[in-house]
Amino acid sequence: MAVIWATLVLIFIVYAFYELLNNIQNRKRYPPGPKGLPIIGHLHLLGKNPHQDFLKLAKTHGPLMYVRLGLVPTIVVSSADTAEKFLKTYDHIFASRPHNEAAQYLAYGQKNMINAKYGPYWRNMRKLCTQHLLSNQKINSFQSMRRQQVEFMIKSLKNEACDHRVVVDLSAKISSLSADLTCLMVFGKKYMDEDLDKRGFKAVIEEAEHLAATPHLGEFFPFLGVIDLQGITRRLKDLSKVFDEFLEKIIDEHVQSRDQKQSKDFVDTMLDIMQSGETEFQFDRRHIKAILVDMLVAAVGTTATAIEWIITELLRHPQVMKKLQKELEQVIGLEKMVKESDLENLNYLDMVVKEGLRLHSVAPLIPHEAVEDCIVNNFYIQKGSRIMINYYAIQRDPNIWPGAEKFLPERFVGSSIDIRGRDFQLLPFGSGRRSCPGMQLGIIIVQLVVAQLVHCFDWELPNGMQPCELDVEEHFGLATSREHPLMVIPTYRLNNA
Ligand code: HEM
Which residues bind heme (predicted)? Predict the structure, then answer.
């Protein structure tokens, strides 16, 4: 009881102090926003899909909006031209990341690239990853591994499809393919359910994703961080031990088998870098482990989610599915499977993937942080503000995208808009300094898997469900995936049965 009273008194004192400060600062012109409540600010306006809630609020308050999440001043950006100000004009001011409780424990004190504060450390880590792990040459070196794994999934689906009209959980298949592709590239081997700990690899990764995505009270009320009312810190500490043991074991195995290897996975490459001593900054096992966590977290869920959404939209739009199958038939033929080298000749596939990534923003709200005070569009943005570029709102802006809520790949016919961060109305991989360094790899995997699934199978929904009845409910998280798994009936369609 005494602890609760002490907490309430503490909250009151901090709040009173905060309001006083606010009144002094209020002479500055902040961006418009909804009316907030004492202490919690605007937290009560956010539900389980905050990107959708912010979009609704932006319709009333505009593309540059001020909200307060607990004690954290937050700026929500919802239009392409305003996003350009944050990600290009003043990118150097908004390229940092806020404190992240999960990364404190799972990434050795925020030593990973995703959550690192903007500065020399992040710059060095990013350079190391883009030059050595995510370069075109490195990505190409895993091409035959990707072919094998995708064919392996197709074979397993084909075997299941032999049983008359079997319903498969395609979400689970895609997610396990994505985990295998990532593990083989990063660790050199796949991890089975019994690895990591008794709960299994998948369950532990899901727990990490869940904890990382759960809003932590300490992020919005920093003085509450130490009390850990939600028990998140305790769970993160436990999980960090499991991860650390697993990653240490992997590094040890790599150290022992290094001389016998021909091809190098990410762990081998990083051990080479560590031993060469050529980095301009301290680089030891902790840094290797933090990067490994990054690669797992950043690659597995995002690519699987993108594929899942694109297939969802194809199922909802059978005429688009047919048109894509026709293109695949013409370019590849019904005797062969899709190869990576075919992708550059598949123009309609390119449009389908762009449109899928536009309509379903995989990572709609990755926070940035302001390192200095700044004036944008005549509004004051204070140092330390959390910046939320709402990619979901930008990519569904009806002023830029006619019929924005519709899945219409043809909108890209004759258009030069691309997805690489140059065009601010379409930013599935972000833009500027903090844009996605795994973009090239992500695009290859998404295009290849979508093409292969559509080329090799005809797809039907179970229980006579009509295409328009397939739901598009979202589940906000590190990657914003389908709320419900995608259940479908495949029929193999190639002639090499
Ligand atoms: C379809 C797949 C993917 C999508 C849609 C995607 C999207 C994004 C987005 C939106 C960001 C944040 C941009 C911002 O902060 O404004 C990001 C950051 C990042 N992504 Fe990806 N990503 C994908 C795949 C990958 C892959 C395959 C990897 C690595 C193997 C990767 C590694 C990263 C990393 C390390 C960051 C943080 C960069 C930094 O903070 O400097 N991503 N991604």
Answer: 436
Confidence of residue 323 (pLDDT cuts 50, 70, 90): very high
Between CA 163 and CA 38 the distance in angstroms is 60
83 lines ligand 1 (CB under 6 A): no
Model-level ipTM above the cut of 0.85: yes
Q: Which residue has the tokens 């769970």?
A: 235
**Closest residue by Cα to residue 65 from 53, 81, 77, 83:** 77
Instruction: Find the 440 Cα to ligand 1 centroid distance in Å.
Output: 10
pLDDT tens, residue by residue, 243-302: 899 899 999 999 998 777 778 999 999 999 998 887 888 889 999 999 999 998 899 899
Q: Would you say the C-alpha torsion 415, 420, 426, 428 has a positive or negative sign?
A: positive
The pair phi, psi for residue 10, each rounded to 5°, is -60, -45
Q: How many Å lie between the centroid of ligand 1 and the Cα of residue 476? A: 16
Indicate if ligand 1 lies below 6 Å from the C-beta of 135. no
Q: Choose the residue to mutate in 135, 366, 436 for probing ligand 1, maximizing ligand atoms within 8 Å of C-beta.
A: 436
Give the pLDDT of residue 11: 62
Write out the DSSP string of 150-194.
HHHHHHHHHHHHHSTT--EEHHHHHHHHHHHHHHHHHHSS---TT
Summarised one tens digit per residue, pLDDT across range 194-223 is 666 777 777 788 788 888 888 888 889 887
Known binding-site residues equal 436
Q: Whose CA is nearest to atom 40 of ligand 1?
A: 114
* Rounded Cα gap, residues 409 and 354, in angstroms: 8
The reported pTM is 0.93
- Report the nearest atom of ligand 1 relative to the CA of 116: 40
